[in-house]
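[job 4471] stage=fold_predict status=RUNNING
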Amino acid sequence: DLVRITEQGDARTALDHARDLARHAESLGFARIWFAEHHNMPGIASAATALVIAHVAAGTQTIRVGAGGIMLPNHAPLVIAEQFGTLARLFPDRIDLGLGRAPGTDPLTVRALRTSAGAAERFPQDVVELQSYFAPVQPGQRIQAVPAAGTHVPLWILGSSTFGAMLAAE
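[job 4471] inference complete, writing structure tokens
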């Protein structure tokens, strides 16, 4: 879901509709609902994707709630691990994390996000780093994503090319 803001509503209404949609999907037996990260789009209220997930998960009971996806080049892997580790602690066994390497926005907004030009090229390494933060803490590990360690949040690789499929297989 993109959490669309309609002409008759505002961002709060869109967020509440997303929660209602998740409740309805849950009542029908659906297993999961995901929200997409898009920036600088006045008609979409899902830019702060982790917060949208928290809002929806708090209003549902069993459905898995996740990102479809977080555009990892826009963020430090540590911050994403902290956010999704927190969600996993608040909503155990209900959080999914889909990852993409596209910016999810226009070039001007990419600069505003402080994303470097080569960030997408580091995507495979950033995925591995992110995985390490969800694993149990290892002896001598100097950086920990608290409270993500040991949550094993499932990661999904989003993509429309063989690159994404090969990375997911790895």
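[job 4471] summary: The chain is about 40% helix and 10% strand.
[job 4471] exit 0
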